[in-house]
Each structure stands twice: as C-alpha cells, then as structure tokens.
Design brief:
Blueprint lengths: L4 E6 L21 H10 L4 E10 L2 E12 L13 H13 L2 E5 L10 E3 L5 H21 L6 E7 L16 E4 L3 E5 L7 H7 L2 H13 L3 E5 L2 H6 L1 H12 L13 H9 L3 E8 L2 E11 L2 E9 L1 H7 L1 H15 L4 E5 L3 H6 L3 E3 L2 E6 L2 H5 L1 H8 L13
Parallel strand pairs: 4-6, 12-13
Antiparallel strand pairs: 1-2, 2-3, 3-4, 3-5, 6-15, 7-15, 8-13, 8-14, 9-10, 10-11, 11-12
Length: about 375
C-alpha cells in the first residue's frame, strides 16, 4: 500500500473532519446527522467508531464500525426454545460474543463506507482491513477481545474487489437477501401499481384492506412519539423478541432522537383502533430511496387485521406518490414482501475468527448455526 494512504479512527462525531458530509452526499446513513444519532441512541451493547481514510491529508473515504457484545442479548430470540437454540446461545456467548462489524448492523445494504474517485476501491478495502486489525488491538487492550470480524452486506459487483490476499483468511457467506421494491416509471399513483398486479394479488390487496376496517393510520409528530414512547417500545419489543435472531435491542427513546434529528426525513406512522396504538412503522428518506426502518405491532391485531401486509401496501403507496425510485424492504418476511412485488437481492459478507483453529472450521460452524432458509418467491405482476 502506498505510504500516502492513511486512516484515522474517531470515537465521537464531534471530532470528524469538517468536509465529512461531502463523501456522504449519496447516503444519509453515513452523514454526520445520522452518525450523531448512532452515537447518542445506539443499543447498549454496541460501540460505534467512525473512520476517515486519507491520501496525504485529504479525506478520500469514510466508514463506520460497530463493536457488538452479544453476551448482553439472547441472540436467538425467545420464539425457539429448543436444544439447538440453547447450544447456539452457549456457543455464541463463549466463542463469538464480541463481534466487530465494518458496516451498519442496524440496516440492510452497503451502508458501511464510501470512497471518493481518488481512492482506488481495493486500496480502500486494504485500509479498512488495517482499521479492523487496529480496532481489534484496541478492544483487546480493554479486555474485550474481538472474536469475529465481519465485513457486512457486500453486493454482487463489490464482492469481486475483496478477491485479494488480505481477505483470503475470511470466510465468504450469504444470509437472507435484501428485499428491494423497484418503482416503475409508469406508476404515477398507487392505483397504477394495483392495476399492474394480477387478479390473485388484487384479491389479496382487497382482502387485506377489508380486514383493516376500523384501523386508522396517521403520521406522528415528535410530541406524539414522545407521548406514546412507552407503548411504542412495548410494540417494538413484541416483534423483536419473536425474531429468529437478534444482535441488539433498541433503547426506549430511540425513535424520539431520530425524529428530533432527521425531522421530515424520518417518518413515523402509528396505527390505531379508537385511540389505542396497535402498531407502527418507520421510514427513512435516503436520496431517491426509501429505507424501511423498525416497526412494532400487537401480534393479535396483526393476525386479525393483516396489519403487516397493510403496512407494506401503505409504504408502497407513499413511495410511489412521492416519486421515490425504490424501497429497501430489508431482510425477514421474504415471502410476504415478494407477494407485494419486492425482489430478492443477494448480499455477501466476510467473516474471520480471531482464533485460527476455530477460523479453519468456521464454514462448517456457520452452516450449522445458519441453516438454509426455504421460502417461495412470488410474482404479483401480470
């Protein structure tokens, strides 16, 4: 690597270079505003660092890392109380509880770094590998030994750049795909979308809307989010604890901070029966994209009212009406998301265990802990 290349690790957004945001112009999730939010409202078991990459003294790359202590979380959720889950939790806590992620573990997609044209891609990756080693050494000194280092959510085109000796000891893996909904140029209104789907899926839409009778939906202001804060957290935890895998839980005031900081770029929708909050979803405007963020709901209402499916239709309607180009629906609930028209996009990751012996067997261990997900892809369009 050219000696002109260097990196700087920052533990506070306050210390970032003044021109940081010029490299975050295409991704809100690398902007100072968003990173500041992470600093003040990240989950308790997560420590964030912000990385500047330089040629001489010129900032040419920015990145995010997250150190996650999984021993603070029941990682495999409360839904599956079987022997395998218990074995997985014990193995995780003893062998893989401290994870260093180069990227953002709270989102789906490549939101971990951005390079200017002056920084060759592979040079940027070599620097980030050095950053991972440096951070590993720092955490080791604090008696928080890094077990796993992960480069997260790499696209099909980007993964080729990692084919260099420095990443040879990393295990390449795929998990659940990112579900992305592309908005066609011919759709000017939500009705155009409904017209483009087949009768079977129009019937699904009508059935969902009929079931949702009696539910009112409204966009919540900062004051209203504060007012419903306890109930919001309760609904979020109801969903989170039933997830098959968790690496963190959001703190109770997380959404308040988001609305306060991101203002109109952060949308919070509450779903009510009478004046009782039964569910919510959140969206973040990211340039031409809409990213779905966290949601929550009352499980009984969700089943009776097809609430989750109705939320998906609402997100699609909003995004079409406001002229966005795509919705990042992220992972989980793959089949229902594909039933409304989202397409699966494969994402890759790279992982390395700090113990060379365990690292040698990491592919076998990964396949045991992460069984292949069976799901049926749908195509709702005519």
């Amino acid at each position: 690597m050219d000696s002109n290349f260097s990196f700087q690790i920052y533990s506070s957004v306050h210390n970032l270079p003044s021109n940081w945001d010029t490299l975050a112009i295409n991704n809100i999730f690398l902007s100072k505003d968003y990173l500041n939010l992470l600093e003040i409202s990240a989950p308790k078991n997560m420590t964030c660092h912000f990385i500047g990459l330089f040629i001489d003294s010129e900032l040419v790359g920015i990145a995010l890392s997250q150190f996650i202590n999984l021993s603070d979380v029941s990682s495999f959720g409360e839904r599956d109380n079987c022997i395998k889950t218990k074995i997985r939790n014990i193995a995780f806590k003893n062998l893989s509880s401290n994870v260093l992620v180069i990227g953002n573990n709270m989102l789906t997609g490549q939101n971990g770094y951005s390079f200017s044209k002056k920084l060759p891609y592979q040079e940027g990756l070599l620097l980030l590998n050095k950053v991972a080693i440096e951070l590993g050494n720092e955490f080791n000194k604090k008696k928080s030994k890094v077990h796993l280092t992960i480069f997260k959510d790499i696209s099909e085109t980007e993964i080729q750049h990692y084919n260099i000796p420095e990443f040879k000891s990393y295990f390449q893996f795929t998990t659940q795909p990112n579900m992305i909904f592309h908005i066609r140029d011919s759709w000017n209104t939500f009705d155009n979308y409904i017209e483009s789907i087949s009768k079977k899926y129009r019937d699904q839409y009508k059935r969902a809307r009929k079931k949702a009778d009696g539910i009112s939906k409204r966009k919540l202001s900062l004051e209203e989010i504060k007012l419903y804060n306890t109930r919001i957290h309760e609904l979020y935890m109801d969903v989170a604890k039933n997830a098959p895998f968790n690496t963190f839980y959001l703190p109770e005031n997380h959404f308040t901070f988001f609305k306060k900081s991101l203002k109109d770029k952060f949308l919070f929708y509450g779903y009510f029966i009478d004046d009782h909050l039964i569910g919510f979803n959140t969206l973040i405007k990211n340039g031409d994209d809409i990213d779905t963020y966290f949601l929550g709901y009352d499980e009984k209402c969700q089943r009776e009212k097809m609430l989750y499916l109705n939320m998906l239709y609402d997100m699609i309607g909003y995004s079409i009406n406001k002229g966005f180009s795509q919705i990042i629906f992220a992972r989980t609930a793959l089949e229902i998301k594909s039933s409304v028209g989202a397409k699966a996009v494969t994402m890759y990751g790279l992982m390395k265990h700090s113990n060379p012996f365990i690292n040698f067997f990491i592919s076998k261990a990964f396949n045991y802990f992460e069984p292949k997900l069976e799901w049926q892809e749908r195509n709702p369009f005519k």
